[in-house]
Amino acid sequence: MASRGLSRGSDDPELIALLLRQLYLVRMEEQNYAEALLLASEMVDLEELGDIARQDAARAAVGLSDYETAIGHLRIASRISPADRRAFHLATLGALLRLAGRAREAAATLGKATRWAQKDRALYRAQEALAAREAGIEQEVDWLSLRKELETLESLRGYSLYILGELCALLGDRAASRDYLERFLRRLEGAPLIKQLALKGELGRARALLLELSA
Protein backbone atom coordinates (compact mmCIF):
# COMPACT_ATOMS: atom_id res chain seq x y z
CA MET A 1 0.00 0.00 0.00
CA ALA A 2 2.84 2.41 0.84
CA SER A 3 4.51 1.64 -2.49
CA ARG A 4 1.27 2.40 -4.35
CA GLY A 5 0.90 5.63 -2.44
CA LEU A 6 4.40 6.75 -3.37
CA SER A 7 3.88 5.78 -7.02
CA ARG A 8 0.99 8.23 -7.25
CA GLY A 9 3.47 11.08 -6.98
CA SER A 10 2.08 13.02 -4.02
CA ASP A 11 3.62 16.46 -3.46
CA ASP A 12 2.80 16.39 0.27
CA PRO A 13 6.20 15.90 2.01
CA GLU A 14 4.61 14.80 5.28
CA LEU A 15 2.57 12.10 3.54
CA ILE A 16 5.62 10.98 1.56
CA ALA A 17 7.63 10.71 4.79
CA LEU A 18 4.93 8.61 6.45
CA LEU A 19 4.70 6.29 3.44
CA LEU A 20 8.47 5.95 3.37
CA ARG A 21 8.40 5.01 7.04
CA GLN A 22 5.88 2.26 6.38
CA LEU A 23 8.20 0.83 3.74
CA TYR A 24 11.16 1.26 6.10
CA LEU A 25 9.43 -0.81 8.80
CA VAL A 26 8.68 -3.57 6.28
CA ARG A 27 12.31 -3.67 5.14
CA MET A 28 13.50 -3.81 8.74
CA GLU A 29 11.24 -6.78 9.44
CA GLU A 30 12.66 -8.42 6.30
CA GLN A 31 16.17 -7.70 7.65
CA ASN A 32 16.93 -5.78 4.46
CA TYR A 33 18.92 -3.19 6.37
CA ALA A 34 20.65 -1.64 3.36
CA GLU A 35 17.35 -0.69 1.72
CA ALA A 36 15.92 0.33 5.10
CA LEU A 37 18.82 2.75 5.55
CA LEU A 38 18.22 4.23 2.09
CA LEU A 39 14.55 4.76 2.95
CA ALA A 40 15.45 6.33 6.29
CA SER A 41 17.93 8.60 4.50
CA GLU A 42 15.11 9.77 2.23
CA MET A 43 13.01 10.52 5.32
CA VAL A 44 15.88 12.51 6.78
CA ASP A 45 16.21 14.54 3.56
CA LEU A 46 12.50 15.43 3.67
CA GLU A 47 13.00 17.01 7.12
CA GLU A 48 9.46 16.06 8.14
CA LEU A 49 9.98 13.43 10.84
CA GLY A 50 12.95 15.08 12.53
CA ASP A 51 14.54 12.99 15.27
CA ILE A 52 12.32 10.00 14.48
CA ALA A 53 13.87 9.67 11.01
CA ARG A 54 17.34 9.94 12.54
CA GLN A 55 16.54 7.21 15.08
CA ASP A 56 15.23 5.01 12.28
CA ALA A 57 18.39 5.58 10.23
CA ALA A 58 20.51 4.68 13.24
CA ARG A 59 18.66 1.39 13.73
CA ALA A 60 19.15 0.42 10.10
CA ALA A 61 22.85 1.31 10.34
CA VAL A 62 23.19 -0.88 13.44
CA GLY A 63 21.67 -3.71 11.41
CA LEU A 64 24.55 -3.23 8.96
CA SER A 65 27.04 -3.03 11.87
CA ASP A 66 27.83 0.50 10.67
CA TYR A 67 28.19 2.00 14.13
CA GLU A 68 29.81 5.25 13.01
CA THR A 69 26.83 6.11 10.82
CA ALA A 70 24.43 5.13 13.61
CA ILE A 71 26.32 7.28 16.13
CA GLY A 72 26.23 10.24 13.74
CA HIS A 73 22.46 10.02 13.31
CA LEU A 74 21.89 9.67 17.05
CA ARG A 75 24.03 12.73 17.79
CA ILE A 76 21.83 14.78 15.48
CA ALA A 77 18.64 13.21 16.88
CA SER A 78 19.66 14.28 20.38
CA ARG A 79 20.20 17.87 19.20
CA ILE A 80 17.01 18.34 17.16
CA SER A 81 14.54 16.36 19.26
CA PRO A 82 11.90 17.89 21.51
CA ALA A 83 13.06 18.24 25.11
CA ASP A 84 10.91 15.34 26.30
CA ARG A 85 12.72 12.91 23.95
CA ARG A 86 16.26 14.24 24.33
CA ALA A 87 17.20 12.01 27.27
CA PHE A 88 16.08 8.92 25.35
CA HIS A 89 18.22 9.79 22.32
CA LEU A 90 21.22 10.63 24.52
CA ALA A 91 20.86 7.36 26.42
CA THR A 92 20.59 5.39 23.18
CA LEU A 93 23.69 7.18 21.88
CA GLY A 94 25.56 6.56 25.14
CA ALA A 95 24.73 2.86 25.11
CA LEU A 96 25.92 2.55 21.50
CA LEU A 97 29.16 4.41 22.26
CA ARG A 98 29.77 2.03 25.14
CA LEU A 99 29.17 -1.01 22.93
CA ALA A 100 31.56 0.50 20.37
CA GLY A 101 34.31 0.59 23.01
CA ARG A 102 34.17 4.37 23.46
CA ALA A 103 33.44 4.25 27.19
CA ARG A 104 34.68 7.75 28.06
CA GLU A 105 32.40 9.35 25.46
CA ALA A 106 29.61 7.06 26.59
CA ALA A 107 29.94 8.18 30.21
CA ALA A 108 29.80 11.86 29.23
CA THR A 109 26.78 11.30 27.00
CA LEU A 110 24.94 9.26 29.62
CA GLY A 111 25.64 12.02 32.13
CA LYS A 112 23.80 14.41 29.81
CA ALA A 113 20.94 11.91 29.52
CA THR A 114 20.69 11.82 33.31
CA ARG A 115 20.50 15.61 33.48
CA TRP A 116 17.81 15.80 30.78
CA ALA A 117 15.78 12.88 32.12
CA GLN A 118 12.25 13.40 33.33
CA LYS A 119 12.02 9.68 34.05
CA ASP A 120 14.44 6.72 33.99
CA ARG A 121 17.06 8.85 35.75
CA ALA A 122 18.17 5.94 37.94
CA LEU A 123 18.72 3.76 34.86
CA TYR A 124 20.79 6.41 33.09
CA ARG A 125 22.82 7.08 36.23
CA ALA A 126 23.66 3.37 36.52
CA GLN A 127 24.65 3.22 32.86
CA GLU A 128 26.83 6.30 33.30
CA ALA A 129 28.60 4.74 36.29
CA LEU A 130 29.26 1.48 34.43
CA ALA A 131 30.64 3.34 31.41
CA ALA A 132 32.85 5.53 33.61
CA ARG A 133 34.22 2.43 35.33
CA GLU A 134 35.05 0.87 31.96
CA ALA A 135 36.78 4.10 30.94
CA GLY A 136 38.91 4.08 34.09
CA ILE A 137 37.40 7.35 35.31
CA GLU A 138 37.86 7.84 39.05
CA GLN A 139 34.49 8.05 40.76
CA GLU A 140 32.79 7.43 44.04
CA VAL A 141 29.86 5.14 43.38
CA ASP A 142 27.58 3.39 45.83
CA TRP A 143 26.92 0.38 43.60
CA LEU A 144 24.59 -1.26 46.11
CA SER A 145 22.43 1.86 46.28
CA LEU A 146 22.29 1.98 42.49
CA ARG A 147 21.12 -1.63 42.46
CA LYS A 148 18.47 -1.00 45.10
CA GLU A 149 17.21 2.09 43.33
CA LEU A 150 16.72 0.16 40.10
CA GLU A 151 15.10 -2.76 41.90
CA THR A 152 12.52 -0.47 43.51
CA LEU A 153 11.23 0.84 40.18
CA GLU A 154 7.54 0.10 39.71
CA SER A 155 8.15 -1.62 36.40
CA LEU A 156 11.40 -3.34 35.49
CA ARG A 157 11.59 -2.92 31.74
CA GLY A 158 13.92 -4.93 29.57
CA TYR A 159 16.87 -2.57 29.67
CA SER A 160 16.66 -2.24 33.44
CA LEU A 161 16.96 -6.02 33.71
CA TYR A 162 20.09 -5.95 31.57
CA ILE A 163 21.75 -3.20 33.63
CA LEU A 164 20.78 -4.93 36.87
CA GLY A 165 22.44 -8.07 35.52
CA GLU A 166 25.65 -6.09 35.03
CA LEU A 167 25.42 -4.41 38.43
CA CYS A 168 24.82 -7.67 40.28
CA ALA A 169 27.76 -9.31 38.50
CA LEU A 170 29.93 -6.38 39.57
CA LEU A 171 28.71 -6.78 43.16
CA GLY A 172 29.50 -10.49 43.12
CA ASP A 173 25.87 -11.65 43.31
CA ARG A 174 26.15 -14.23 40.55
CA ALA A 175 22.74 -15.81 41.14
CA ALA A 176 20.90 -12.48 40.90
CA SER A 177 22.94 -11.50 37.86
CA ARG A 178 22.03 -14.72 36.06
CA ASP A 179 18.37 -14.25 36.97
CA TYR A 180 18.20 -10.68 35.64
CA LEU A 181 20.08 -11.49 32.45
CA GLU A 182 17.94 -14.56 31.74
CA ARG A 183 14.80 -12.48 32.30
CA PHE A 184 16.18 -9.85 29.93
CA LEU A 185 16.76 -12.47 27.22
CA ARG A 186 13.32 -14.04 27.74
CA ARG A 187 11.67 -10.61 27.55
CA LEU A 188 13.19 -10.05 24.11
CA GLU A 189 12.44 -13.49 22.69
CA GLY A 190 8.92 -12.49 21.65
CA ALA A 191 9.72 -8.86 20.94
CA PRO A 192 9.42 -7.40 17.42
CA LEU A 193 12.53 -7.85 15.31
CA ILE A 194 13.15 -4.09 15.19
CA LYS A 195 13.39 -4.01 18.99
CA GLN A 196 15.70 -7.01 19.05
CA LEU A 197 17.89 -5.27 16.50
CA ALA A 198 18.06 -2.10 18.58
CA LEU A 199 19.39 -4.19 21.47
CA LYS A 200 21.55 -6.67 19.55
CA GLY A 201 24.73 -5.43 21.21
CA GLU A 202 23.22 -5.84 24.66
CA LEU A 203 21.90 -9.28 23.71
CA GLY A 204 25.41 -10.35 22.79
CA ARG A 205 26.91 -8.96 25.98
CA ALA A 206 24.20 -10.54 28.11
CA ARG A 207 24.86 -13.98 26.59
CA ALA A 208 28.62 -13.55 27.01
CA LEU A 209 28.22 -12.53 30.65
CA LEU A 210 25.97 -15.51 31.32
CA LEU A 211 28.68 -17.79 29.94
CA GLU A 212 31.22 -16.18 32.28
CA LEU A 213 28.86 -16.61 35.24
CA SER A 214 28.35 -20.29 34.41
CA ALA A 215 32.08 -21.02 34.19
Major beta sheet, specifics?
A: none
Number of strands: 0
CATH topology of the largest domain: Serine Threonine Protein Phosphatase 5, Tetratricopeptide repeat
**What low-confidence regions span 5 or more consecutive residues with pLDDT below 50?**
none
The 3D shape can be described as globular
Helix percent reads over 70%
Q: How many helical stretches? A: 13
What string, H for helix and E for strand, traces the elements in order? HHHHHHHHHHHHH
Alpha carbon gap, first and last residue: 51 Å
Give a written overview of the molecule:
It is built from 13 helices and no strands. It is an all-alpha fold. The protein folds into three domains: 1-76, Serine Threonine Protein Phosphatase 5, Tetratricopeptide repeat, CATH 1.25.40; 82-141; 142-215, Serine Threonine Protein Phosphatase 5, Tetratricopeptide repeat. Helix 9 runs antiparallel to helix 10 and helix 11 (174-189) runs antiparallel to helix 13. The termini are far apart.
Produce the secondary structure layout.
Elements: H1 2-7, H2 13-29, H3 33-46, H4 51-63, H5 67-80, H6 83-99, H7 103-116, H8 121-135, H9 143-151, H10 158-171, H11 174-189, H12 193-198, H13 200-214
Helix pairs in contact: 2-3, 3-4, 4-5, 5-6, 6-7, 6-8, 7-8, 8-9, 8-10, 9-10, 10-11, 10-13, 11-13
